[in-house]
Structure formats: structure tokens, C-alpha cells
Amino acid sequence: MADKAIQDYYPDEFAHCYGCGPLNEAGMKIKSYWDGEEAVCHFTPKPCHSGGVPGFAYGGLIASLIDCHGAATASAAKLREKGYSLGEKPLPRFVAASIKVDYLKPTPLGTTLEVRARVKEIKDRKVTVSVTLSAAGEICAKGEELFIQLQQWSVQTGYPKPVE
Amino acid sequence: MADKAIQDYYPDEFAHCYGCGPLNEAGMKIKSYWDGEEAVCHFTPKPCHSGGVPGFAYGGLIASLIDCHGAATASAAKLREKGYSLGEKPLPRFVAASIKVDYLKPTPLGTTLEVRARVKEIKDRKVTVSVTLSAAGEICAKGEELFIQLQQWSVQTGYPKPVE
Question: Distance from the CA of A50 to the CA of which of A88, A160, B132, B158 falls in 20 to 30 A?
Fold first, then answer.
């Protein structure tokens, strides 16, 4: 697996996400890597990341992992579609337009979670991604997501404008 | 509005959620209250809760708020359906089976977010909830969620068993 994660190629101005931004010092800094046709992310939650019951993860953490890992996968897939490897060209940055998470079973803490993403479709600047989140080999949650590529930074709004 | 939030009535064994558990010292401790037929939650993100771009919230935070506030709404609605007010009977605890979040526009930081939930259906131990998340009066995200009431704590698994 590569030394540098997909997120490590995010342009600095888009690298501040609490979930996945290398420049967010307080954040979770998740890391995603190509693994063949899928992208994989490993994350070990802290005990404080519990759901209502100690020892199991809260739903928001699971949604965060699925969201951020899916966005990284969309970015890397878009670059790959254009025929480039990571680092060869600036990485396009995607944000979620919609995510659906099905919580299939309780996700335990105290173990490393594996998040796997697979691109279902790339259509212009829209990328749909399917994600699974597993603990000890068992799928605990599934995600279906639609991401949209950001086109440009808007000085006026301070926010990158989504592509029309 | 009531002094005590819905979450303040969670039984201690179910009060450890990072997003909404009163007993999770490191957590966000969101608070939900009835406001007529809706339940409302106000939350002010920290600067570190940014998405890729500083000044706007990351998607996982938005999903967390929608998840936790929806779960509280489901709990309180189930109690109300039985004819009881908060505090009159132990509050049933719900967990998400599925959430869908549509991100309609960037959610700014630096302001208090308002999350509003409305129960669409209560069917036995399943409750469906619709949620909006707004900043400065503008809806930035919408959620549709299915929650399932937990029935009992399982000593064997350390996790409350979802109801069959």
C-alpha cells in the first residue's frame, strides 16, 4: 500500500475537514488508500466514541467514516478516470450531496474498523460510491453516497462553489 | 421550554453517546426539547468542526446531529404516544437503523445551528423521523431516519438487544 494516503494529496485549501483533513489538528485524520478496485481505510475509535452504551460506536462516527472515506475514494477515482495516478495532477475535491447509512449491527469499539469503498458510477462531476464498515470481518454498516466535485474556490463566499 | 432535555431522561446505562449522552464527558452533549409537535435542538459547532474548507461544517457533524436529535425525538414521541410526559416513566431508548442525509448547501460555522425533528410514523418499536438542520433560518441539510427501540440490556453481549 502507498505511503501517502489519498487525503495527503488534498490541496491545502480543502484539507481542513475534521474527519479527514491532514491540516485539521483536532480532527480524526482518517487515511484512505487504493487497494485494487476498492479504497480502504482503517480507523481505531477511542473509548469516548461510544454510542449510548459503552463499548460500541455512536452512529455519527460511523456516518463520518463512511462520508469522509467515500469522498476520498470519489476524488481518487475521478483522477484515475482521467488516466492519472495520485500526485500526478491536483486531486479534485468532492463533497457529499447525499449519504444513506444502514446500521446493520452494533459496531464494537476496542478494535480497528475497516471501511471499504467501491465506485459505482462516475458521471461528469458526480460520483456514486458504496461503502461497507466492518469490525473483525463482520459488516456492521453500509453506506450509499453521492458526491459532487467542487469546481473552484469562491473568494466572495469563502466556499468552493459546487459545479453547476 | 423545559429545563431538562430529553437526553437528561435517558437511563444511565444508555447515556454514554458521544453525540448526545449526558454521561459522556468528552462528547458533544446535544440537548433536545419538545417545541409543540416538533423537537428542537440548538448546537454551536467549534471551529475545529470544519469540513474541507474552514468556516463550514463537516458532513459527519451534520449526520451526528441529525442522528442523535432524531433518536431523542423518537424516544420522547414513543413515551408521549403512551400518554406519558417526560419523567413520568423510564424513557425508551432508540438507535438508528438507517439514516439518509441530503446536504442541500454548505452549513456555516460561527453560528448556532437549529435542528428540528418531526415524527412521521410510530409503528410498534419503529419510529420514522424527518429532520431539518438550519443556519440563520436557511435549511442546509435534511434527514430521513428509521429508529428502533432497544428492548433490554444483554449481559451476555454487553449490548442492548434490539427488539425482534
Answer: B132
Q: What topology is assigned to A33-162 in CATH? A: Thiol Ester Dehydrase; Chain A (3.10.129)
Q: Which residues of chain A have a CB within 8 Å of the CB of B63?
A: 59-60, 63-64, 67, 99, 101
**Which residue of chain B is at minimal alpha-carbon distance from A14?**
B52
Handedness of CA A68, A70, A73, A74 (dihedral sign): negative
Q: What is the pTM (predicted TM-score) of this model?
A: 0.93
CA separation for the pair B107, B130 (Å, rounded): 18
Q: What is the ipTM of this complex?
A: 0.92
**B14-61 confidence digits (pLDDT tens):** 999 999 999 999 999 999 999 999 999 999 999 999 998 889 999 999
- CATH fold group of domain B6-162: Thiol Ester Dehydrase; Chain A (3.10.129)
A138 touches chain B (CB under 8 A): no
Which one of B67, B104, B115, B146 would you mutate to disrupt binding with A, by most A Cβ within 10 Å of its Cβ?
Answer: B67
Which three cell numbers mark B150? 432497544
Identify all chain A residues contacting B21, using CB atoms and an 8 Å cutoff: 50, 52
Residue numbers of A between 94 and 113 with CB closer than 8 Å to B: 95-103, 106
Give the residue extent of every domain in chain B.
6-162
Interface membership of A151 toward B (CB under 8 Å): no
